[in-house]
Amino acid sequence: MLQELLHVSHSLVVFPYLYMSQECVPAFFSSLDLLATRPQTVQRDEVLGVALGVQGARTVSVPDHTGQRVIYVERGDLKRVYAQLFEQLTDVDGWKTHLRAYQVLLEAFRTTTQLSDLVRVGDRTAGLKAYRAWVRALELFSDFILAPFMVERDVDPLCYALVKQQYGQDAERVWGVIASPSELHEFQRMRLAIVEAVIEGNCSRERAQSLADAFGWYNEYAFVEPLLDAKHFLGEMKALSLEEARAEEEKILQDVREHREAFEVFLATCSDATLKQLAEVVHAYTFLRTDRVDRMKEAQVHLRRVFDMVANALREETGVEWTREMVAACTKDELLAYMEEGTIPYEEHIRERAAQRYVYYSEGGRAHVLHSQASLDHTHELIQAGQQQRQDIKGRPAFPGSVTGRVALVFNKTDLPKVQQGDVLVAKTTMPDYMPAMKVAIAFVTEE
To answer: In a 10 Å sphere around its CB, with 0-12 CB exposed, 13-18 middle and 19+ buried, how is residue 174 labelled?
Structure first.
């Protein structure tokens, strides 16, 4: 029996549960709601798996035809978590508790960063400590994973209806005040740092390197992306004239200042306590929906030191050319088992995951990974059968107005060169590296 459960390579025990001869696709795959489409690794899948596992929510991640992954949450679980979040965020005391919890989360990300920076080659103990801090941060992330989705789905429409009811013809202006961010997010801070260098006339390689040190993390998402380097920032600085730099700086600062002042006036003049509470939530999440991911990405970049340490140790112990990409294809339990006990993940399956040939799901607080083509096919069949057929497309505009242009479909970054001046960019979502295409597009249409 032991021989059937364990695979021995170089006298090291290889993670055993991957050796099931038959994979079972759970029945709940036929009851899933779409959450998002993202470039994923297993470790990025675990962000949702660990965080939502705290709330007993089951998650699934499957590959699509574009090389990205589609993320689902079990329908009943999603409905339950949304209801809990709605009750918390629309209650005055619950909202205050939510905001305090966000500060605790930020401190947990800072702890992950600090511990990750202490990790050295071969120091598995320090790596384990940093990784445990990361898992703890993900558990605290639980309330903030789905909150923006719930706010957009449930709180926004309710708030907007009250605004229309109370402000009549002035409703669109008031709604614009509520739904516009009044804090600088990190992309704006990065742009301000770039334009400041141009205004100062200091576009040197040293300045570009300092920008890369401060903001290189912005391109992070799934532990494997190339970070923004000095070459990138040199290009951004050289692309701006002095006049353009001054205009961009003025616009960013003026917009945020005007949004903040307008929202303060709204709060001071609004007499409806229910509307004020809903408006506080909507307004705060115009910033938090971005900031929560930015803070996590900053911590992730530092956590790469842990993954690099593990990859180096595995190379030395197995003679196999392990990379950070392969380590990022491991589950939380596999990494903990290696750093705690020396148990080696099964290389063949890790390579399949790195090539996106896997189904990930989290149930009962534990990750499961399916690798066979039969499991992939069956998963797609179950999901497709469980999805409601949509006969129309509807949504809400971020900005009012109408334009006409040629549609440019963008499934991933390789499609960006297709976008020409005046096109309508249509994508599942937009990301920072879509900015060159977004600058020439006349409008954007996104699924989320």
So the answer is: buried
